[in-house]
Specification:
The structure holds two protein chains of two kinds. By secondary structure, chain A is α+β, with helices and mostly antiparallel strands. Helices cover about 45% and strands about 10% of the residues of chain A. The longest helix of chain A is centred in the N-terminal third of the chain and has 13 residues. By secondary structure, chain B is α/β, with parallel strands linked by helices. In chain B, β5 and β6 form a beta hairpin. Classes of the chains: A alpha+beta, B alpha/beta. At the A-B interface, α2, α4 and α5 of A face β3, β5, β11 and α14 of B. Bound molecules: flavin mononucleotide, iron/sulfur cluster and FE2/S2 (inorganic) cluster (FES).
């Protein structure tokens, strides 16, 4: 179902835990990284590999905020909206991105390049305001810095 | 007074993550010492240190360790809680990023003390980049014989699995964390039984925070008494505080327990931004009561002093707000957080946080009345003490404390009485 590299990682994860169901979160991460979202097929496949019912995988996928069943987009811009970031200007960062990209939080640009999200505390409060682009942290943001970051994304 | 760098001592060294740097600066000596001690002796030393859990609840660490039934025939597990998602808190991240071996050594000693042969680091999924840092350090430790079978010839065996979460604040709560680690939705379990007795896969499990475990090597190497005297009588040692919000130098600072809060803000933090005055502080992460400037002036950073001004030390996330801050807005921000993070298991928290957000929205839009504020208070009463896990309580404390200490920020938003239609 996945690339040989991902399959090898899944095999290793399943072997690593005392009970293979424990491998479910890292496996869903891998599936999403490879396919850009969590697909129905992936859910069935993971259920099969872990001897679970598909619904047991589905209920996990829908519980955690990092998993998406719709296309994420190439770059997921996740601006922290929680208190420390708000005190340091997070709303301004989000407004700037909304204007620049022409989308609201929860939306994807028509070309599929950017998804904008407001997320909860990213554990980077002392370097607020903060956003994560996919897995990379960008801290002490200003609107100018945001422009620079977007410009430099390949 | 200034910072007292115990846990953060290696942070500024070049290559601080490498095992060679760690070994050159006294690393893994505590483990060698611990392996020559009995399990009871280690637990005794930790009890003496007055170390209390740094994840939020502040439970005495040595006492918690002594609850693990070591004679149980079941396997025992150690789980390091690296979920760090309490708003305002960002210390565990740097403990892992800058000194992963300190955490690993603490985990090996702790696992030895309770007789665990497998351990986990449950790390929030957003800290993805740290997985590689931790796994590299684990490999280094294994290559030198500190992990794996027969550690330093002692017949003790331990492995560490780094396990990423996937975005859920509730998975920081220890029983929800265990559910999540078992591959399920992160719904908290009923306590008792406590994880020390029935934890991961139904087996005795010790759950400790990253910072708690990172302190263990120092306690073993230099002694519990030494660690304790760094802090106050009841709150031993040092603690990391994440300072954020309206200060000139936000950052993570390690100070002795009992350090004055205003000194942290004014000296380490360089004072309030733009020369403004202080209005409010949340001293222990978003879930603890907010205090005003007068209370902050009386507050020292230890468990007892925080309690004496009506708040809690908890995770040590110090959020500072200047005189221009609207406490209605900051409270609204937090209640949205709790609504988003409510796991949905029990009605008071799931429905209550949703209602609270609706009421705050209404008040913000300008159509709120005094009756809405009273309804908010009643909702809080009905969530507090009636929820399945402490998240419900955590959602309420920021609101009730804010309304009590800064009532004008709320009352000025609402109309006193319902408007009466006037004939044209
Ligand atoms: C809603 C909620 C969230 C929590 N989040 C965390 C967390 O992110 N990290 C953490 O170490 N402890 C967290 N805790 C506390 C844990 O339940 C537990 O007390 C702690 O991991 C025990 O370790 P300690 O004694 O070393 O602090 C949370 C508790 C609750 C109720
Ligand atoms: S109090 Fe909230 S987070 Fe805790 S079990 Fe109930 S719904 Fe879930
Ligand atoms: S509040 Fe934004 S990172 Fe913590």
């Amino acid at each position: 179902m996945f690339s040989p590299q991902t399959e090898a990682k899944i095999d290793a994860l399943i072997a690593k835990y005392p009970y293979k169901r424990s491998a479910i979160l890292p496996i869903i991460h891998l599936a999403q990284l490879e396919q850009g979202k969590v697909t129905e097929e992936a859910i069935h496949y993971i259920a099969d590999r872990l001897d679970l019912e598909p619904v047991e995988v589905y209920e996990v996928v829908t519980f955690y905020s990092m998993y998406f069943m719709e296309e994420i987009g190439k770059y997921h811009l996740q601006v922290c909206r929680t208190l420390s970031c708000m005190l340091c200007g997070a709303e301004e960062i989000t407004a700037h991105l909304e204007k620049k990209l022409g989308i609201k939080p929860g939306q994807v640009t028509p070309d599929g390049r950017f998804r904008l999200s407001e997320v909860e505390c990213l554990g980077s409060c002392a370097t607020a305001p903060v956003m994560q682009v996919n897995f990379d942290y960008y801290e002490n943001l200003t609107p100018e810095k945001v422009d620079e970051i977007l410009k430099n994304l390949p | 007074m200034a910072e007292t760098k115990i846990l953060t001592a290696r942070f500024d060294l070049p290559n601080s993550t490498s095992i060679d740097t760690y070994l050159k600066t006294g690393g893994y000596q505590a483990l060698e010492k611990a392996l020559k001690m009995t399990q009871e002796e280690i637990i005794e030393e930790v009890k003496k240190s007055a170390l209390r859990g740094r994840g939020g609840a502040g439970f005495p660490t040595g006492l918690k360790w002594s609850f693990v039934p070591r004679s149980s025939p079941k396997p025992k597990y150690l789980v390091c809680n690296a979920d760090e998602s309490e708003p305002g808190t960002c210390k565990d991240r740097y403990l892992m990023e800058k000194d992963p071996h300190q955490l690993i050594e603490g985990m090996i000693i702790s696992a030895y003390a309770i007789g665990a042969n497998l351990s986990f680091i449950y790390i929030r999924g957003e800290y993805w980049y740290l997985i590689a840092v931790l796994e590299k350090a684990i490999e280094e430790a294994r290559a030198r014989g500190y992990l794996g079978k027969n550690i330093l010839g002692s017949k003790f065996e331990l492995d560490i699995i780094v396990h990423p979460g996937a975005g859920a604040y509730i998975c920081g709560e220890e029983t929800a964390l265990l559910e999540s680690l078992e591959g399920k939705r992160g719904h908290p379990r009923i306590k008792p039984p406590f994880p020390a007795v029935v934890g991961l896969y139904g087996c005795p499990t010790l759950v400790n925070n990253v910072e708690t475990l990172s302190a263990v090597p120092h306690i073993i190497l230099k002694g519990g008494d030494w660690y304790r005297q760094l802090g106050t009588e009841k709150s031993g040692g040092t603690k990391m505080f994440s300072l954020s919000g309206h200060v000139n130098r936000p950052g993570n600072y390690e100070v002795r327990m009992g350090y004055p809060l205003m000194q942290l803000i004014n000296e380490e933090g360089g004072g309030i931004r733009d020369g403004k005055k202080l209005k409010a502080v949340i001293p222990g992460g978003s879930s603890v009561p907010i205090i005003n400037a007068e209370e902050a002036a009386r507050c020292n950073l230890d468990y007892e002093s925080c309690q004496s001004v009506g708040t809690m030390l908890a995770s040590g996330g110090v959020i500072v707000m200047d005189e221009t801050t609207d406490i209605f807005e900051t409270t609204f921000n937090l209640i949205k957080f709790y609504k988003h993070e409510s796991c949905g298991w029990c009605t008071p928290c799931r429905e209550g946080t949703d209602w609270l957000v609706k009421l705050f929205k209404k008040i913000k839009s300008g159509s709120g009345t005094q009756a809405d504020l009273e309804l908010i208070e009643r909702l809080c009463v009905n969530i507090e003490g009636r929820s399945h896990c402490p998240l419900g309580e955590a959602a309420v404390l920021p609101i009730t404390s804010a309304m009590k200490r800064f009532p004008e920020d709320f009352t000025k938003r609402v109309r006193k009485t319902l408007p009466v239609l006037q004939p044209a």
